[in-house]
Amino acid sequence: MTASSPIDPRARYARWVAPLCWTAVALEGFDLVVLGVVLPALLKVPSWGLDPNSASLISVVGLLGVAVGALAIGPVSDLFGRRGTMLLTVTSFSVFTLLCAVVDGPWLFGLLRFLAGLGLGGVLPTALALITEYARVGRGGSSTTVLMTGYHVGAVLTALLGILVVERYGWEWMFVIGAAPAVILVPLMVKFLPESAEFLKARGTRAARPPRERNPIGILFRHGYGRATIAFWVTSFMGLLLVYGLNTWLPQIMREAGYELGAALALLLVLNVGAVIGLLIGGRVADRLGYRRSTIVWFTAAAVFLALLSIKLPGFSVYVGVLLAGIFTFSAQVLVYVYVARVYPAAARGTALGAASGIGRFGAISGPLVTGFLLTAGLAYPWGFYLFAVVAAIGAVAITVVNRDPAPDAPLEVTAEGDTATRTE
């Protein structure tokens, strides 16, 4: 490890990166559940004329916006910087979310959900790139998984706020609350969020390359990265299919298995508790055992425990089974992001993360739709769990074909004094 002079004068603000990015990711957790929180109220608005089908369409439109935003924003962050991209995504998401509170019809509401999704889709890949590039030596995995706890904390807080706010004050206030953090978060980012030192280094390197080397999208398929890129896309699709399919339909599947409604809802809570535990454990395991091996193990374990849920377990054991499924299923997808961030060079890291997240969003759309079809056909139990187990197994197999080691320009360690130090992994 050799010391060098600071690349970024703002690196003394490195300690702000984690809390600011964590808060931004929590906003995505807000978006995960806010529509579900307000939909019962929206279905009762006579002038809107919504039914379950049209409400589902609004949900899909919002997710499409997130997918498009994730695919588009990665190259922007690689070409123009992480800091400015993060400011753009948080600001745009918050503005369009606030406007959702004042619309008077479903069509405009759906459009605003799409536009908000564009900004929101860029939050996660940009935050992941920043966290990776400011992670200390040997803590890249745990830094990323701790970041992703914000996603689940945001989701839980939104659900709790929905109980307190919607019936008493109206559904509109949920969108006001979702936009309000930007009033504090954006000024804090303007003042304290530093640009990535590694991005500045990569930008300087790109300036010396031929024009064709400046295209971050092209890097995903050149220099031997193409095979890894396709493998990551397949795995991310499968991972988010599991996350959204389970979060949307687990209670109903368990009801079909014969569990009481209260127990079915409690199992959803247990599933998400397992997700947080998995995040805290998975990152540390990945830092010690390696990103490829850990991701394969996590998807394989998810397949095993999801298949186990196809058996009606007695008493308390069903809660243990769901907890274990949550531990491995949800954090498996996050380990994909950890691995992606470590494989690609800084010049294409945001693009790679955005593409994996964006392609994964189509899995997020597919999960609830496919599971809903099984429910309609009366096949969700036990076949839904068989399907989830196969999906997790495909994710594990896809990771095995990744043929890339961590990129040579591994993240720089930023010291408390603001100096940067190069390192290799």
UniProtKB/TrEMBL annotation:
Q: What is the lineage of its organism?
A: Bacteria, Bacillati, Actinomycetota, Actinomycetes, Pseudonocardiales
Major facilitator superfamily (MFS) profile domain spans which residues? 17-407
CDD domains in the cross-refs: MFS_PcaK_like
Question: Where would you find the membrane-spanning parts of this chain?
Answer: 20-43, 55-74, 86-108, 114-134, 146-165, 171-193, 230-250, 262-283, 295-313, 319-340, 352-377, 383-402
GO molecular function annotation: carboxylic acid transmembrane transporter activity
For this UniProt record, the keywords arranged alphabetically read as follows: Membrane, Transmembrane, Transmembrane helix
Assigned GO CC terms: plasma membrane
Q: Which Pfam families match?
A: MFS_1
Protein name as annotated: Aromatic acid/H+ symport family MFS transporter
The protein's matches in PROSITE patterns, at most eight in alphabetical order, are given as: MFS, SUGAR_TRANSPORT_1
Describe its membrane topology: Multi-pass membrane protein
- InterPro entries from the UniProt entry: MFS (IPR011701), MFS_dom (IPR020846), MFS_trans_sf (IPR036259), Sugar_transporter_CS (IPR005829)
> Where is the protein situated, by its record's location annotation?
Cell membrane
